[in-house]
Design goal:
- 76% of the residues lie in helices and 0% in strands.
- The protein is built from 23 helices and no strands.
- Helix 2 crosses helix 8.
- The chain is globular and about 70 Å long.
- 48% of the residues are buried.
Length: 487
Amino acid sequence: MDLENKPHQTKNQGNQQKNVSVQETIRKPDTLFLYFCVMTGQLVTMAFGASMAWTSPVLGKLYSNNTDINPLGRPITSIEVSLLASMPTFTNILGMLVMPKISDIVGRKRYLLIAGVLTLFSGVGLGFSGASLVLMIVTRCLFSFSAGWVVFSLYLMEICEDHNRGKFGCYVGIFNQIGNFFGFVFGPFFSVKTFSFIITSPILIFVVIFTVMPESPVYLLKHGKEKECKKALRKLRSNKTEDEIELDLKKLKYSLQNEPKGKIADLFKKRENFLAVVLSFLPQLIKYSSGVTVIFTFLAPYFNEAGTSLSGDMVAILVAVVKVTSFVLASFIVERFGRRKLLILSSTGTAIPLFTAGVYFYLQSINSSLIAYLQWLPLTSLLFTVCFFGIGLGPVSQVMTSELPPAEIRAVSVSLVHSTGSFVAFAFTFLYPLISESLGTEWCVWWFSINCTVGSALIYFFLPETKGKSFVEIKEMLKNYSKLQIK
């Protein structure tokens, strides 16, 4: 009897997979509620982006001898700058290793609300840190420890569909850059205390509004809450019929079928899981090794060092506008051109202006007479760097990190990838002011350029395309990676 039923079972499984593929073709415009949910959650990302830009306008005040604008009452030292800029990145690593896994236990929505409250208190503490550099460092570390934006990226992937996952995934990068812009605009014109309160304000709005948002349908289904899952789907996809909602529910069930609870060990038990981690880490590694995030941290001091007639703070605002624009552009074209092509273009394009910026700083270090004719080069190089970074490495790397791992290891994988990427960012951020002071800025920038060039080659040869693929198809692709023709 078992032998007789086996072909029928196989046939039924094949029909089930066929039905799942059919439902993937059902596309309807994204609902206003989905947009509202995405935009509200992005306030966390925006606040995090503003906190990362905090150092650029604030360092100009902390370097000053004017006690009216410098709350420390004395100029800050190089080692203190390294600690103030890099320690939040280090605690972000610790947070990303632990916090996304906690969200698997308490739920994405509940965790995001808890993280929002913690971030709100740390932002207020930063405002009241006054003359205490230690308190500044501690409160900035708490601000980044919750890793709220990482958990939100998981939540975002789980409320989206295959056809809009790339677009909304890019929104994480967009709002991070809006946060940068927010920081660069307000930072130069307000005291350190007031500025700290301003960048924390989006979190207050988030905590109030996000309470009405649904839990992730994937999380609910994984925990056996099918009714709640269907209710969440109805909210997020209110323009679909009941039959279409039922098909979406079946698709989620199919993608989660026989998937065990994820553990660190699961990353290495299956070849496709290990590949998912390595391949999702590759764009993140190139992103942080490009040095763009480091340059943004020290943007005002970096540009002041270039010795042009333009103010570092004003250049920071201009660069932030260009960066936001390029991230928005990426969200419109990522589903048309694909993740892989944009990453290759972005990495190659970022390498070239970084190299030319290094040439400028080298000529400046040897007091070349050519500098008088090249005053336009630092800003031009910086704007092109930001443009190319913004159409790929910035937003699309985030999409790949949440898209490649299967559901059972997604939280664990995202934690590991982002924490490792943040460790790279921590190392670069800590070392940059020290190496720049000892060897010269040109060697730092040239190193970033080399990293982008090597990264472009690695993406070309090893990273597969995931555009338009369901999580099930991505998993199958990784299982057959050795037979895959990457092109």
